[in-house]
Amino acid sequence: PAASGLDHRTLETWETIWGGLSLVLVWLLFVGVIASMISGTFPQLSGGGHAAVGRGRIDPAQLEVTPFARPGLVRTAQGLELYIVARSFTFTPAVVHVPADTPITVHVTSVDVVHGFQVTGTTINDEILPGHVASFTVTFRHPGAQDVICNEYCGAGHHTMMTRFIVDP
Ligand code: CUA
Question: Ranges for the Cytochrome oxidase subunit II copper A binding domain (predicted)?
């Protein structure tokens, strides 16, 4: 009968419309989750959630126009800031003298692959990604040497990759 044929076509049309809409919704949800992972809205999904208090973006090929061009300790209007560059298989500077009982904001970035940055004997332990800056503020209370190691496997020289903070009284 012609009437039921028409009904069937109408149903098919609605099915197509709702089927299409649900695909669009799933796609939007997918794109939204990926976008927020990339932008860091959910840092726990994008591998964050470490001791770092801040993360900025940086172009690893353009470090010479940033404070990372001269790694080391600098005094700025914000206080003492320490810039450290990680590359396979060194940290620059190799040794840093820092004053005790003074807050220091440390910024670390990588020029090549993912490295780790762990200050032994402290809770400072972060992942250093090329294109990103990990920043955290630390106050060393006890004079003496504090080793910093790379704890993300980064290649053949990984186990030799370290730097050292010498905390001056
Ligand atoms: Cu750098 Cu492991």
Answer: 70-169
Specify the DSSP class assigned to residue 74.
E
Confirm whether the ipTM is greater than 0.95.
yes
Domain containing residue 128: CATH number? 2.60.40.420
One pLDDT digit (tens) per residue for the chain, 169 residues: 555 566 777 888 888 888 888 888 888 887 776 666 555 444 333 333 334 445 688 998 888 999 999 999 999 888 999 999 999 999 999 999 999 999 999 999 999 999 999 998 788 899 999 999 999 999 988 899 999 999 999 999 999 999 999 999 9
Q: Which amino acid is at 18?
A: W
- Whose Cα sits closest to atom 1 in ligand 1? 115
Centre of ligand 1 from the C-alpha of residue 120, in Å? 15
* 39 and 103 assigned to the same domain: no
What's the 112 CA to ligand 1 centre distance in angstroms?
Answer: 10
State whether residue 20 is helix, strand or coil: helix
